[in-house]
Design brief:
290 residues; globular; single chain
């Protein structure tokens, strides 16, 4: 039986910025339109957090039963390590999805946007079928696109819309920036796992592109938010403070560009997530008060 510490590690705390950053950016964009609602913002954060914990457990379960994690370089996995029964991890995933659904119902009720129930169902389905089901789209090279859509566009613009009742060009820019960095986290993860994924038949985008082009993709995605910063900065100079997020990206960019492999790429996930969080905090605050 897995220990509490192992369950916490299995939840993959280092991925939490992917859930927190879009809500902060979306809330800041909503506040810029005088639409800030603290209760809805908290519930939106709960939805995002439960979804990412749920998808982490779902990936742990699905990859574990397929044998993808049998020879893993990356973070600890509950099923792959044999520390927890697959059924227990699967149950944990669906409990998290259920809690996300409950928080989402609160968001829908308070905002009055009942059509968003369909978006919520789509998000849960996307979380499960990333590595679950007979034909997981994460094994077909669509993982990065899904992350960009779900934890970028939908999370940021959804958070903004349920509070402000509309979206803005600034909000769209924030969504693209967060989505790009969130996707970059996954690219770094899949870059590290190219050798083992090839052996197990997991055809991620990194496997399809190959090592060199995957590194190029990471650099491009990591720099997209700063192009957004320049564009928004033409109207709101406070947003230019978002360039501070480049500091935690120095190490992962160097690692990726210089050809780091295996465990040497693990810190890149953490540092890219940190950069995303910093960028979202500064950009959200600038949109709210600038």
């Amino acid at each position: 039986m897995a220990t509490v510490a192992q369950w916490i590690e299995g939840a993959r705390i280092r991925t939490f910025p992917n859930a927190i950053a879009p809500v902060l950016a979306g809330t800041g964009a909503a506040a810029g339109l005088d639409g800030f609602d603290p209760l809805i913002a908290v519930l939106a954060l709960a939805v995002s957090m439960f979804l990412i914990i749920g998808v982490n457990f779902a990936n742990d379960y699905s990859d574990g039963i397929r044998g993808t994690d049998d020879d893993r370089v990356g973070p600890f996995r509950l099923v792959g390590s044999g520390s927890a029964q697959p059924s227990a991890v699967r149950t944990a995933a669906w409990i998290c999805f259920g809690l996300a659904a409950i928080a989402g119902l609160g968001v829908v009720y308070l905002s009055g946007q009942w059509w968003l129930l369909a978006i919520g169902a789509l998000c849960i389905a996307g979380a499960w079928f990333y590595t679950g089901g007979k034909r997981p789209y994460g094994y077909a090279g669509f993982g990065e696109l899904a992350v960009f859509v779900f934890f970028g566009l939908i999370a940021v613009l959804g958070t903004m819309y349920v509070q402000a009742g509309k979206i803005s060009g600034f909000g769209i820019g924030a969504a693209v920036g967060v989505g790009a960095l969130s996707s970059a986290v996954l690219v770094a993860n899949n870059l590290r796992d190219i050798p083992s994924d090839r052996v197990t038949g997991k055809r991620t985008l990194a496997v399809m592109l190959g090592d060199r082009d995957t590194r190029t993709l990471y650099v491009a995605l990591a720099l997209v938010p700063f192009l957004i910063t320049v564009l928004i900065g033409l109207r709101n100079s406070w947003v230019l403070l978002g360039f501070a997020a480049l500091l935690p990206l120095v190490v992962p960019l160097r690692a990726v560009i210089t050809g780091a492999q295996g465990r040497a790429l693990i810190p890149a996930l953490r540092d890219t997530g940190l950069a995303m969080l910093i960028w979202a905090v500064i950009t959200g605050a600038a949109l709210a008060f600038g």
